[in-house]
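Hi R.,

Here's the chain you asked about this morning:
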Amino acid sequence: MGILVALLVLSVLIFFHELGHFTAARFFGVQVDVFSIGFGKKLYSRMIGKTEWSISAIPLGGYVKMKGQDDSDPTKVSYDEDSYNVKKPWQRIIILLAGPFANFLMAFFLYFAVSQMGTYATPIFNYTKYLPATVGDFSKDSEAKKVGIQKGDTIIQINHTPITNWGELGEVTQKVSTPIIITLLRGEQTLTYTMQPIVKELENKFGEKVKRKLIGISPKLTEEKFSFSLREGIVFAWNETLYASNLIFQSVEKMLTGAVGADKVGGIITIVDITSQASNAGIVMLFLFTALISVNLGVLNLLPIPALDGGHIMFNLYEMITGKTASEKAMMYITMVGWALLLALMMLGLYNDVTRIWGTH
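And here is the predicted structure, written out as C-alpha coordinates:
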Protein backbone atom coordinates (compact mmCIF):
# COMPACT_ATOMS: atom_id res chain seq x y z
CA MET A 1 0.00 0.00 0.00
CA GLY A 2 2.83 2.35 0.89
CA ILE A 3 4.48 1.84 -2.52
CA LEU A 4 1.20 2.65 -4.29
CA VAL A 5 0.89 5.86 -2.25
CA ALA A 6 4.51 6.75 -3.11
CA LEU A 7 3.89 6.26 -6.85
CA LEU A 8 0.70 8.31 -6.58
CA VAL A 9 2.61 11.11 -4.84
CA LEU A 10 5.27 11.14 -7.57
CA SER A 11 2.59 11.17 -10.27
CA VAL A 12 0.80 14.10 -8.63
CA LEU A 13 4.04 16.09 -8.33
CA ILE A 14 4.92 15.40 -11.95
CA PHE A 15 1.38 16.32 -13.03
CA PHE A 16 1.56 19.72 -11.32
CA HIS A 17 5.04 20.38 -12.74
CA GLU A 18 3.87 19.68 -16.28
CA LEU A 19 0.61 21.52 -15.66
CA GLY A 20 2.70 24.62 -14.93
CA HIS A 21 4.37 24.34 -18.33
CA PHE A 22 1.04 23.58 -20.01
CA THR A 23 -0.77 26.55 -18.46
CA ALA A 24 1.98 29.03 -19.36
CA ALA A 25 2.29 27.62 -22.88
CA ARG A 26 -1.44 27.96 -23.54
CA PHE A 27 -1.41 31.47 -22.04
CA PHE A 28 1.09 32.51 -24.72
CA GLY A 29 -0.81 30.68 -27.44
CA VAL A 30 1.54 27.72 -27.84
CA GLN A 31 -0.02 24.48 -29.07
CA VAL A 32 0.62 21.55 -26.69
CA ASP A 33 0.63 18.26 -28.62
CA VAL A 34 1.18 15.82 -25.73
CA PHE A 35 0.77 15.97 -21.95
CA SER A 36 2.21 12.76 -20.52
CA ILE A 37 2.64 11.41 -17.01
CA GLY A 38 5.43 8.84 -17.29
CA PHE A 39 7.55 7.68 -20.19
CA GLY A 40 7.57 4.74 -22.56
CA LYS A 41 4.56 2.76 -23.74
CA LYS A 42 1.27 4.61 -23.36
CA LEU A 43 -1.16 2.81 -21.08
CA TYR A 44 -3.97 5.30 -21.55
CA SER A 45 -4.44 8.32 -23.79
CA ARG A 46 -7.25 10.65 -24.73
CA MET A 47 -7.47 13.61 -27.07
CA ILE A 48 -8.92 16.74 -25.47
CA GLY A 49 -8.94 19.53 -27.98
CA LYS A 50 -5.59 19.40 -29.78
CA THR A 51 -3.72 17.84 -26.85
CA GLU A 52 -3.18 14.13 -26.26
CA TRP A 53 -3.35 13.46 -22.52
CA SER A 54 -1.65 10.18 -21.63
CA ILE A 55 -0.39 7.96 -18.82
CA SER A 56 2.71 5.93 -19.72
CA ALA A 57 4.27 2.77 -18.32
CA ILE A 58 7.40 4.17 -16.64
CA PRO A 59 6.35 6.53 -13.78
CA LEU A 60 9.76 8.22 -13.47
CA GLY A 61 8.80 11.61 -14.84
CA GLY A 62 6.62 13.21 -17.44
CA TYR A 63 6.67 15.74 -20.21
CA VAL A 64 4.73 18.35 -22.14
CA LYS A 65 5.50 18.26 -25.86
CA MET A 66 4.91 21.68 -27.34
CA LYS A 67 4.66 22.37 -31.04
CA GLY A 68 8.13 23.14 -32.34
CA GLN A 69 10.00 21.73 -29.30
CA ASP A 70 11.55 18.27 -29.31
CA ASP A 71 14.26 17.40 -26.76
CA SER A 72 15.13 14.22 -28.66
CA ASP A 73 15.90 16.28 -31.76
CA PRO A 74 16.46 20.05 -31.20
CA THR A 75 16.68 20.58 -34.99
CA LYS A 76 12.96 19.86 -35.37
CA VAL A 77 11.39 23.30 -35.27
CA SER A 78 8.16 24.90 -36.44
CA TYR A 79 7.56 28.51 -37.35
CA ASP A 80 3.76 28.42 -37.22
CA GLU A 81 2.05 31.11 -35.19
CA ASP A 82 1.17 28.66 -32.39
CA SER A 83 4.70 27.21 -32.18
CA TYR A 84 7.05 27.42 -29.20
CA ASN A 85 9.87 28.54 -31.51
CA VAL A 86 8.23 31.77 -32.66
CA LYS A 87 7.65 33.09 -29.15
CA LYS A 88 9.99 35.71 -27.72
CA PRO A 89 12.83 34.40 -25.53
CA TRP A 90 11.31 35.96 -22.38
CA GLN A 91 8.00 34.20 -23.11
CA ARG A 92 9.77 30.87 -23.53
CA ILE A 93 11.63 31.44 -20.26
CA ILE A 94 8.33 32.02 -18.44
CA ILE A 95 6.95 28.78 -19.94
CA LEU A 96 10.06 26.94 -18.75
CA LEU A 97 9.98 28.52 -15.27
CA ALA A 98 6.29 27.68 -14.84
CA GLY A 99 7.04 23.99 -14.16
CA PRO A 100 9.43 24.52 -11.23
CA PHE A 101 7.21 27.39 -10.00
CA ALA A 102 4.26 24.95 -9.85
CA ASN A 103 6.35 22.64 -7.66
CA PHE A 104 7.30 25.47 -5.27
CA LEU A 105 3.66 26.57 -5.16
CA MET A 106 2.49 23.05 -4.38
CA ALA A 107 5.06 22.77 -1.59
CA PHE A 108 3.79 26.08 -0.19
CA PHE A 109 0.20 24.78 -0.10
CA LEU A 110 1.28 21.49 1.49
CA TYR A 111 3.21 23.33 4.22
CA PHE A 112 0.22 25.60 4.76
CA ALA A 113 -2.06 22.53 5.11
CA VAL A 114 0.34 21.09 7.68
CA SER A 115 0.28 24.37 9.62
CA GLN A 116 -3.50 24.19 9.87
CA MET A 117 -3.57 20.50 10.84
CA GLY A 118 -0.79 20.94 13.41
CA THR A 119 2.46 19.01 13.63
CA TYR A 120 4.93 17.74 16.18
CA ALA A 121 8.66 18.52 16.20
CA THR A 122 10.35 16.49 13.45
CA PRO A 123 13.63 17.01 11.55
CA ILE A 124 11.73 17.04 8.23
CA PHE A 125 10.98 20.75 8.75
CA ASN A 126 12.82 23.56 10.54
CA TYR A 127 10.97 23.09 13.83
CA THR A 128 13.64 24.84 15.93
CA LYS A 129 12.30 28.17 14.61
CA TYR A 130 9.04 27.47 16.46
CA LEU A 131 10.47 26.17 19.74
CA PRO A 132 11.01 28.64 22.59
CA ALA A 133 14.63 28.88 23.79
CA THR A 134 13.74 27.03 26.98
CA VAL A 135 16.27 24.65 28.56
CA GLY A 136 14.95 21.10 28.63
CA ASP A 137 18.03 19.12 29.61
CA PHE A 138 21.82 19.21 29.88
CA SER A 139 24.56 17.22 28.22
CA LYS A 140 27.23 15.43 30.23
CA ASP A 141 29.70 17.96 31.67
CA SER A 142 27.46 20.83 30.53
CA GLU A 143 29.09 24.25 30.87
CA ALA A 144 25.67 25.86 31.23
CA LYS A 145 24.81 23.62 34.16
CA LYS A 146 28.15 24.38 35.81
CA VAL A 147 27.49 28.14 35.87
CA GLY A 148 24.03 27.71 37.41
CA ILE A 149 21.56 27.59 34.51
CA GLN A 150 18.55 25.39 35.35
CA LYS A 151 15.94 23.36 33.47
CA GLY A 152 12.98 25.53 32.53
CA ASP A 153 15.07 28.70 32.13
CA THR A 154 14.19 30.62 28.95
CA ILE A 155 17.11 32.36 27.24
CA ILE A 156 16.22 35.81 25.91
CA GLN A 157 19.66 37.23 24.98
CA ILE A 158 23.13 36.03 23.93
CA ASN A 159 25.77 38.78 24.22
CA HIS A 160 22.89 41.30 24.23
CA THR A 161 21.46 39.92 20.94
CA PRO A 162 17.72 39.15 21.37
CA ILE A 163 16.71 35.47 21.17
CA THR A 164 13.12 34.52 20.35
CA ASN A 165 13.41 30.80 19.51
CA TRP A 166 15.74 27.80 19.74
CA GLY A 167 16.91 28.18 16.14
CA GLU A 168 18.16 31.71 16.81
CA LEU A 169 19.91 30.49 19.97
CA GLY A 170 22.03 28.07 17.94
CA GLU A 171 22.76 30.57 15.16
CA VAL A 172 23.73 33.45 17.45
CA THR A 173 25.89 31.25 19.69
CA GLN A 174 28.07 30.34 16.69
CA LYS A 175 28.50 33.99 15.62
CA VAL A 176 29.22 35.86 18.84
CA SER A 177 32.63 36.24 20.46
CA THR A 178 33.51 34.42 23.66
CA PRO A 179 33.00 34.38 26.58
CA ILE A 180 29.24 34.20 26.12
CA ILE A 181 26.92 36.36 28.22
CA ILE A 182 23.54 34.67 28.60
CA THR A 183 20.47 36.57 29.79
CA LEU A 184 17.48 34.42 30.77
CA LEU A 185 14.12 34.39 32.49
CA ARG A 186 13.51 32.18 35.52
CA GLY A 187 9.97 32.74 36.64
CA GLU A 188 9.73 36.46 37.41
CA GLN A 189 13.52 36.91 37.56
CA THR A 190 15.87 38.10 34.84
CA LEU A 191 19.32 36.57 35.38
CA THR A 192 22.67 36.88 33.61
CA TYR A 193 25.44 34.26 33.38
CA THR A 194 28.86 34.37 31.74
CA MET A 195 30.45 31.20 30.44
CA GLN A 196 33.06 29.82 28.06
CA PRO A 197 31.56 27.37 25.53
CA ILE A 198 33.26 24.13 24.52
CA VAL A 199 34.36 23.88 20.87
CA LYS A 200 33.82 20.45 19.30
CA GLU A 201 34.08 19.03 15.79
CA LEU A 202 30.71 17.63 14.74
CA GLU A 203 28.97 16.53 11.55
CA ASN A 204 26.51 18.98 10.04
CA LYS A 205 23.37 18.04 8.08
CA PHE A 206 25.50 17.42 4.98
CA GLY A 207 27.87 15.05 6.75
CA GLU A 208 30.71 17.60 6.83
CA LYS A 209 33.02 17.99 9.82
CA VAL A 210 32.54 21.47 11.32
CA LYS A 211 33.62 23.12 14.55
CA ARG A 212 30.76 24.30 16.74
CA LYS A 213 30.54 26.15 20.04
CA LEU A 214 28.47 24.19 22.56
CA ILE A 215 27.06 25.27 25.91
CA GLY A 216 25.61 21.85 26.74
CA ILE A 217 21.84 22.34 26.68
CA SER A 218 18.97 20.80 24.72
CA PRO A 219 15.49 22.23 24.08
CA LYS A 220 12.39 21.54 26.10
CA LEU A 221 10.27 19.52 23.70
CA THR A 222 6.53 19.57 24.10
CA GLU A 223 4.13 16.71 23.42
CA GLU A 224 1.64 19.23 22.06
CA LYS A 225 1.36 19.99 18.36
CA PHE A 226 2.65 23.21 16.88
CA SER A 227 -0.47 25.12 15.84
CA PHE A 228 -0.70 28.23 13.67
CA SER A 229 -3.32 30.83 12.89
CA LEU A 230 -4.23 31.52 9.26
CA ARG A 231 -1.70 34.36 9.00
CA GLU A 232 0.97 32.43 10.89
CA GLY A 233 0.32 29.46 8.60
CA ILE A 234 1.07 31.56 5.50
CA VAL A 235 4.33 32.76 7.08
CA PHE A 236 5.17 29.17 8.10
CA ALA A 237 4.54 27.88 4.55
CA TRP A 238 6.64 30.66 3.01
CA ASN A 239 9.54 30.14 5.43
CA GLU A 240 9.55 26.36 5.07
CA THR A 241 9.45 26.55 1.25
CA LEU A 242 12.43 28.92 1.31
CA TYR A 243 14.24 26.77 3.88
CA ALA A 244 13.75 23.57 1.86
CA SER A 245 14.81 25.31 -1.36
CA ASN A 246 17.98 26.68 0.23
CA LEU A 247 18.77 23.29 1.76
CA ILE A 248 18.52 21.53 -1.61
CA PHE A 249 20.51 24.24 -3.43
CA GLN A 250 23.24 23.84 -0.79
CA SER A 251 23.15 20.04 -1.16
CA VAL A 252 23.62 20.29 -4.94
CA GLU A 253 26.43 22.84 -4.51
CA LYS A 254 28.25 20.66 -1.98
CA MET A 255 27.88 17.59 -4.17
CA LEU A 256 29.31 19.45 -7.20
CA THR A 257 32.25 20.78 -5.16
CA GLY A 258 32.94 17.35 -3.65
CA ALA A 259 32.08 18.38 -0.09
CA VAL A 260 29.35 15.71 -0.12
CA GLY A 261 30.24 12.32 -1.61
CA ALA A 262 28.47 10.85 -4.65
CA ASP A 263 27.36 7.96 -2.43
CA LYS A 264 24.85 10.36 -0.83
CA VAL A 265 22.87 10.66 -4.08
CA GLY A 266 19.55 8.83 -3.86
CA GLY A 267 17.43 7.59 -6.73
CA ILE A 268 13.84 6.69 -7.41
CA ILE A 269 13.95 3.65 -5.10
CA THR A 270 15.00 5.81 -2.14
CA ILE A 271 12.27 8.34 -2.92
CA VAL A 272 9.61 5.62 -3.15
CA ASP A 273 10.88 3.91 0.01
CA ILE A 274 10.96 7.07 2.16
CA THR A 275 7.61 8.30 0.77
CA SER A 276 6.13 4.90 1.61
CA GLN A 277 7.45 5.16 5.18
CA ALA A 278 6.13 8.72 5.48
CA SER A 279 2.66 7.59 4.35
CA ASN A 280 2.66 4.94 7.08
CA ALA A 281 3.54 7.63 9.65
CA GLY A 282 0.40 9.63 8.90
CA ILE A 283 -0.95 12.33 6.65
CA VAL A 284 1.11 15.15 8.20
CA MET A 285 4.42 13.36 7.66
CA LEU A 286 3.35 12.44 4.14
CA PHE A 287 2.52 16.09 3.39
CA LEU A 288 5.85 17.28 4.84
CA PHE A 289 7.87 14.80 2.81
CA THR A 290 5.83 15.42 -0.34
CA ALA A 291 6.50 19.16 0.03
CA LEU A 292 10.22 18.41 0.33
CA ILE A 293 10.19 16.26 -2.83
CA SER A 294 8.20 18.94 -4.66
CA VAL A 295 10.82 21.57 -3.80
CA ASN A 296 13.53 19.09 -4.79
CA LEU A 297 11.88 18.58 -8.17
CA GLY A 298 11.61 22.34 -8.68
CA VAL A 299 15.24 23.01 -7.75
CA LEU A 300 16.72 20.15 -9.79
CA ASN A 301 14.79 21.21 -12.89
CA LEU A 302 16.42 24.65 -12.63
CA LEU A 303 19.93 23.19 -12.95
CA PRO A 304 21.61 24.38 -16.19
CA ILE A 305 21.58 20.89 -17.76
CA PRO A 306 20.27 21.01 -21.36
CA ALA A 307 17.86 18.13 -20.85
CA LEU A 308 16.18 20.06 -17.99
CA ASP A 309 14.25 23.33 -17.82
CA GLY A 310 17.36 25.14 -16.58
CA GLY A 311 19.28 24.14 -19.70
CA HIS A 312 16.56 25.47 -22.00
CA ILE A 313 16.46 28.68 -19.96
CA MET A 314 20.22 29.09 -20.56
CA PHE A 315 19.68 28.77 -24.34
CA ASN A 316 17.00 31.44 -24.23
CA LEU A 317 19.09 33.75 -22.07
CA TYR A 318 21.88 33.39 -24.61
CA GLU A 319 19.45 34.43 -27.34
CA MET A 320 18.23 37.41 -25.30
CA ILE A 321 21.80 38.61 -24.64
CA THR A 322 23.32 38.01 -28.10
CA GLY A 323 20.23 38.48 -30.25
CA LYS A 324 20.87 35.18 -32.04
CA THR A 325 20.14 31.52 -31.40
CA ALA A 326 22.78 28.86 -30.85
CA SER A 327 23.59 26.83 -33.96
CA GLU A 328 21.57 23.67 -34.51
CA LYS A 329 24.76 21.59 -34.39
CA ALA A 330 25.83 23.10 -31.07
CA MET A 331 22.36 22.61 -29.59
CA MET A 332 22.35 18.99 -30.72
CA TYR A 333 25.71 18.19 -29.10
CA ILE A 334 24.97 20.13 -25.91
CA THR A 335 21.60 18.42 -25.56
CA MET A 336 23.21 15.00 -26.04
CA VAL A 337 25.75 15.82 -23.33
CA GLY A 338 22.90 17.01 -21.09
CA TRP A 339 21.00 13.77 -21.53
CA ALA A 340 24.17 11.81 -20.83
CA LEU A 341 24.74 13.74 -17.59
CA LEU A 342 21.12 13.27 -16.53
CA LEU A 343 21.16 9.53 -17.28
CA ALA A 344 24.49 9.18 -15.44
CA LEU A 345 22.99 10.93 -12.40
CA MET A 346 19.93 8.65 -12.53
CA MET A 347 22.14 5.56 -12.81
CA LEU A 348 24.27 6.75 -9.89
CA GLY A 349 21.15 7.20 -7.77
CA LEU A 350 19.88 3.77 -8.78
CA TYR A 351 23.27 2.18 -8.02
CA ASN A 352 23.34 3.80 -4.56
CA ASP A 353 19.77 2.64 -3.94
CA VAL A 354 20.59 -0.97 -4.81
CA THR A 355 23.81 -0.82 -2.77
CA ARG A 356 21.90 0.41 0.29
CA ILE A 357 19.25 -2.28 -0.08
CA TRP A 358 21.90 -4.98 -0.59
CA GLY A 359 23.78 -3.72 2.45
CA THR A 360 20.70 -3.95 4.68
CA HIS A 361 20.07 -7.59 3.84
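One quick note: The chain has two domains: 2-119+262-360, 132-219.

Cheers,
M.
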